[in-house]
Amino acid sequence: MSSKNHPTGRMRLGTRSCAECRRRKVRCIFPSQSAICQECIAHGIPCKAQERRTSSSSDNAGSPGNQGMQQRLQGLEDIVRELLNRDREQVESWTTRGDMDSSRAIRLLHPDAATDESAAVTIDQLMNTPDSVTCHTPSSQEENLDQAPLVNLVNQTLDVQSDKSTRSGNRGIRHLPNNNYISALRALVPRIDDLLLILESTMEYWFIWPTEPPGHNEGQSYGRAAMVKDFILNSFESREPLRIVKGVLWLALCVQQLSADAIKQRKSFLPAPPQTLFDAYMAGAEAILVDVGESVASMDRLECLLLYTKLCINMGKPRQAWATVRSAINCALLLGIHRPNQCPEPYQQSLWSQAWQIDRQLSSILGVPYSVSHLHCSLDPNLPVVVRIMQSINSIVPKVSDLHQGLTETPIEEIEIEIHNCANLFPNEWWSVIPAEYMSFDALYARQICKIYFFQLQKTLHLPNMLKTFDDRNIQTSRNITIEACRNLVSTYEVLRSSSKSALIICDFMDFIVFSAALIITVHLLTPPSSRNTARDAGDWNIVTHLAQTFRQLAGAIECSVAQQAATLLEYLHGAHHGTYVGPEEYAAFIPWFGKVRIGYVPRQQQTTSLSPQTPLSNTQDQNGSSFCGSIEFGINGTTPGSFVWSGSGPWDSQFIYDELGIDWTSMGDIECDYDWTQLFHGAGYEN
């Protein structure tokens, strides 16, 4: 049947616009009792109803008009493919010629590098020079072009993958062959004299890191920094991906630990600002590790994974560290080094010991199951005391985790006996608050870290009981143990930070653990006097304020988001309680893996709970002269800290996945979750 014989008619019910208004995409309005719309009357054209598409239209697919449209579409597709191939060929030309400069390497490894001038200003200030090295980054127009609707449509049509990485770790990394990443990383290695300076400036911290320095066993007899330098340079010549990653991650640890004084020593010290360079190292290393794959088990890969875990812990990214150390455990299991009778090498046993102990500590903090169960460690008396203490602590940690997650019903009394036995492993002089001045850096660090882990274990065990109710005398023992453990935890940390040897150790995760202990002390101080011994209140508030000062000094000396935010919150809490609060009128912070804190003001006549009249919350007058009183609200998850972490539905989710503890806590202050314990405290003189 020809199309001219096919009946025509109006469109489906509800379609009232005429054909011309639909073509011009304007509103079609029919005056009352008129068959012609206003637009057609205004333009003096016939007003025709829309026609139903006929079945014969499919027969016109081969018409000259449709063929021309298909040819134009094919031409557009060819142009897009040519542009994509040209971009890939350009990247490959950078790598094959070996002449990629640092700006191109940054653009390849870290396209999301900040485009504002803040990073350049920071490095200028540190270097005290007007012509510091800056890296080329995509302009805002280039970044916006990636999100243009037409570009998205073409990408979806041609099934083109975006350059943005979808992994939860480093963002904005391209999916390219390993050779491209290797060439980019090579371009970002500092000059030989600068590389040596970086290594020598951080060499005193190497004993803290989980592996031996790369290149230490290759027969060289000269300095350790020179050996590592040779290893890094030679690894690029070897083109062995895992050796390159190991050298780059070691260099990343050094850059991460650099102090401002070390940067000032050279005019053009780094090929890019430190944070940009560090992010590029991490992105390239992660891309190569992912490309190599989980099934490749080797000592080089195990060392790379442990180094990457350490970097994540330092950055305050426990989730990413936990995922990485799980991969390290899988690698160690495939290598068979978890069997003591089949692994005589002490170094391999040390790597395995670090892997399962880190996993248990992170699992306890995150509230998730640990990886290796039924692991029994024989505490060989010939082992160093630090090794025996850490193995003892980490053999108790899973029992506490299982108890809190409802996986076992081990009585707290039994766990307390094991903790007491662990305490007996500590030499008596270790319990001294102030170590001897002559103590070496490694001895001081080992002593204080063992004590931090021990007091953290005590706090974790008893915290859920402490939060049940403050009026229950039956749990007073747990409360006393928790508060005393928190006091000891903070004082141990203060000793570590007060030493010139260890003052600038970067570890956001350690800062967070100590900060959470200070918050528990603050909660204790805010409770009604009838439920606690007030004799130590002044000393406890001094612990909180002094820690805030320590965090403030640390944040000023090294880049540390956790310390900076922790100092602010502790200062706000102290000020709100003592009537000197100068923060926002409504302050709300959501602290990952801890809970929420809100500070504000409420009218006095609405009070429900009063604090000690000796230390009232702030009494202020609003602009209208009405009497107001400060309020502090806490919500804490003490049993399973990770239970309230969201599933990924909020606008802040992608930012949290990337930054974790480093995210702006106040940006998530409106999150509502279920907590194990909540309490609202008001100031004295407040009546119902």
DSSP E strands, number: 5
Find the structural class using helix and strand composition. Answer: mainly alpha
What is the CA-CA span between the terminal residues? 86 Å
Q: What radius of gyration results from the CA coordinates?
A: 32 Å
**Helix percentage range:** 40-55%
Shape: globular
Q: On the 0-100 scale, what is the average pLDDT?
A: 76
Strand content: under 5%
What low-confidence regions span 5 or more consecutive residues with pLDDT below 50?
A: 1-13, 91-97, 114-147, 156-170, 604-628, 642-652, 684-688
Task: Characterize the main sheet.
Answer: 5 strands, antiparallel
Order of helix and strand elements from N to C terminus: HHHHHHHHHHHHHHHHHHHHHHHEEEEHE
With helices defined by DSSP (H or I, 4 residues minimum), what is the helix count? 24
Task: Describe what you observe in this structure.
There is one protein chain. Helix 9 packs across helix 11. The protein is mainly alpha-helical and 688 residues long. Strand 1 and strand 2 (595-603) form a beta hairpin. 52% of the residues lie in helices and 5% in strands.
Short summary:
The protein is mainly α. It has helices spanning 19-24, 38-43, 64-97, 102-109, 118-127, 140-146, 149-158, 178-187, 192-202, 224-238, 241-257, 260-264, 274-292, 299-315, 318-335, 346-366, 385-404, 412-423, 441-466, 476-498, 508-526, 537-557, 561-578, 653-659; strands spanning 587-591, 595-603, 619-621, 627-636, 677-682. The model is unreliable at 1-13, 91-97, 114-147, 156-170, 604-628, 642-652 and 684-688 (pLDDT under 50).
